Amino acid sequence: MAGIEAHWYQRNWRHLILLPASWLFGALVALRRTLYRCRLLHSFKLPVTVAIIGNISVGGTGKTPLTLKLAQQLTHAGHHPVIISRGFGGNKAQQAVTPESTAEQVGDEPKLMAQRNICPVWVGRDRVATAQAAIQAHPLCDVILCDDGLQHYRLQRDMEIVVIDGVRRFGNSYLLPAGPLREPVSRLASVDAVVINGGKTDPGQYSMQLSGDIFYNLTDPEKTATALDFKKLRVHAIAGIGHPQRYFDHLATLGLTVTPHAFPDHHPYTSGELIYQDCDALLLTEKDAVKCAAFADDKYWVLRVDALIEPALTDQLLRKIAIHGR
């Protein structure tokens, strides 16, 4: 974490300089939401259930693993979800995402989700138009899962799910740019579900954990390994996600000692910057792996993680779908 973001998880005199900008940002956020609530700004209602999986802070909180888990459980329940995303890091064009799509075209997270092959994935700058195109392409679709987009009020929603990093929480609790918040903490009172990723929950909140202990080789995905296979090797690990330390901590819980390398979220990797002379194995997140496949060698290993969530969260979403279908 570098630059201004390094100060978002502490409080010191520097924030006094940025607080007026944060107050202005908060006023604009409140005004914009009020304009949509009063219908002075137009929003669109889709013919299917829309569930937003988002957050009120900048940076990764675990939205993508949760979105995939909900998609999987909805599919098992007989529904036909479609995931939509803005496609951060892609070319912003409205398009269906396939396993053959590149991260440069669609963004790293949508490509990751498409590779899981759970349900259709679409991306586009205009989420309303993207959802409409996805529904037209998939007539059986009965629920849209919007990965991110809590603040995209043009798209009406039936359920709002907010994911919170259980370790970092709200940082210093200031709005941008003095802190990491896109909206004030009070916004949580109006959402349908609050999910805590890897931390203590308060009454009424849902817990979530990321689980994974199997690595697959990036050049040969059929080849797998466990942490024990790396015990006697010189191991490096990279993470270009919202909270890199979470990944490194997870590797430590598996009993691994690694040399960590943190990169900015959505970092566009090149082969030259990942050459480490004392490296027998390089461990990656799935999100990073989609951007490294083109130049990877047999040292590249990927840890697959899945979200473990309370069944009550899925049950709440299923009730929303049932109500919408009446």
Automatic annotation (TrEMBL):
Keyword Zinc: no
The protein's Enzyme Commission number: 2.7.1.130
Reactions listed under catalytic activity: a lipid A disaccharide + ATP = a lipid IVA + ADP + H(+)
GO MF annotation terms: ATP binding; lipid-A 4'-kinase activity
Pathway: Glycolipid biosynthesis; lipid IV(A) biosynthesis; lipid IV(A) from (3R)-3-hydroxytetradecanoyl-[acyl-carrier-protein] and UDP-N-acetyl-alpha-D-glucosamine: step 6/6
Keywords: ATP-binding, Kinase, Lipid A biosynthesis, Lipid biosynthesis, Lipid metabolism, Membrane, Nucleotide-binding, Transferase, Transmembrane, Transmembrane helix
Record's GO cellular component terms: plasma membrane
InterPro entries membership: LpxK, P-loop_NTPase
Class in the EC hierarchy, top level: transferase
Ranges that cross the membrane: 12-31
SUPFAM superfamilies named in the record: P-loop containing nucleoside triphosphate hydrolases (SSF52540)
A GO BP entry: lipid A biosynthetic process
Binding of ATP, residues: 57-64
Family membership noted in the UniProt record: Belongs to the LpxK family.
HAMAP family: LpxK
Function noted in UniProt: Transfers the gamma-phosphate of ATP to the 4'-position of a tetraacyldisaccharide 1-phosphate intermediate (termed DS-1-P) to form tetraacyldisaccharide 1,4'-bis-phosphate (lipid IVA).
Record's protein name: Tetraacyldisaccharide 4'-kinase
